[in-house]
Design a protein that fits this description.
Elements lengths: L3 H7 L3 E4 L12 H14 L6 E5 L11 H15 L5 E4 L5 H13 L4 E4 L9 H12 L5 E6 L1 H4 L5 H8 L4 E6 L4 H11 L4 E4 L8 H5 L3 E4 L6 H12 L3 H10 L1 H14 L4 H11 L17 H13 L4
């Protein structure tokens, strides 16, 4: 376990949002999870800065109970073995359960938690601030804010985010605002307080670098770690021309991802990741939890075509 200050520095890179491997019967596949964590590190994060987040949105947190989330984190922490920081996705609507979970994952050796505001009811600014204050005072590990507009149905304002960033163990933000103008304002306001990550991932790279973001989160790292880390390497070395070339190279996958998102919403993302991983030879278990929208056979064929264009198949 590292200090919040150390975590803030280590988040400056690629933050992998880990897919949760499942068995064909739907249970968490511990053997697949162990192999996948090692794959993400050795084929990806070992080549640059960054961290792993378990049970985030793309890790199917909405379809998992708290004990399953702890099990996934425990396995991930043990497999990571200090090679990269590990944060536990802690999204929920009951602050008491979130605090209990956060305290449990602290005991399991997590380096931090990732936490979006409470959803279901669209929260007020006051509710959001008090929510983070309540959780933060009960734990010692770092907190990565998660501004997720599609789920919370509220794009938390820069002034509110700035107040949250002043909380002692808040170390960063995964900023998923749909507005690049707001993203620029957010980076400029927070970059000297906490680590600011482009939460829209490869879609906004390398442009978020120009805005001042310290890094980006990634779902595609689950199935194309080499390309994601090549993008990061060029970005981090200020070779924006090559970074843009890589971004344009992976366009077929991003276009497919965007098409599915527009059609189904964010619930489809775990299915896109798991099907892509299976197509490139990394079986994470095609079955997803019931709340996840699954892509159909024709869409899987289209995804295969996009991956083929990249030479991944």
């Amino acid at each position: 376990m590292i200090t919040p200050e150390e975590l803030q520095e280590k988040l400056k890179g690629v933050v992998a949002i880990l897919a949760t491997p499942q068995a064909d019967t739907g249970e968490i596949a511990e053997d697949r999870l162990q192999k996948h964590v090692d794959y993400i590190i050795t084929e990806g994060l070992s080549k640059g800065e960054g961290a792993i987040v378990t049970t985030g949105s793309m890790g199917e947190c909405a379809g998992m109970n708290w004990e399953e989330r702890k099990n996934v984190l425990d396995i991930t922490v043990k497999m990571a073995n200090g090679r990269v920081p590990v944060l536990a996705g802690s999204n929920g609507t009951n602050v008491t359960e979130i605090v209990e979970f956060a305290q449990s994952v602290e005991e399991l050796g997590a380096d931090g938690i990732m936490l979006m505001p409470p959803y279901y009811w669209t929260p007020s600014d006051k509710t959001i601030l008090e929510f983070y204050q309540t959780v933060a005072k009960e734990i010692k590990i770092g907190i990565l804010l998660y501004n997720n507009f599609p789920i919370v149905r509220k794009d938390v304002s820069v002034p509110v985010l700035s107040k949250i960033a002043d909380i002692e163990n808040v170390v960063g933000i995964k900023e998923c605002t749909p507005s690049f103008f707001k993203f620029i304002d957010c980076v400029q306001a927070l970059k000297n307080k906490i680590t600011v990550l482009n939460g829209n991932g490869e879609f906004w790279e390398p442009f978020s670098k120009l805005a001042g973001a310290h890094g980006f989160s990634s779902g595609p790292i689950n199935f194309m770690p080499d390309l994601v880390m090549e993008l990061w390497k060029s970005r981090s070395e200020n070779d924006l021309e090559n970074a843009l070339k890589i971004r344009l190279k992976i366009m077929p996958v991003l276009q497919f991802w965007s098409k599915m998102f527009d059609k189904y919403g964010p619930s489809v993302e775990p299915s896109v990741i798991k099907n892509a991983a299976a197509l490139v030879g990394n079986n994470l278990g095609i079955p997803t939890r019931q709340v996840v929208t699954r892509i159909n056979k024709d869409e899987t064929k289209e995804l295969k075509g996009a991956l083929t264009k990249l030479g991944l198949i």
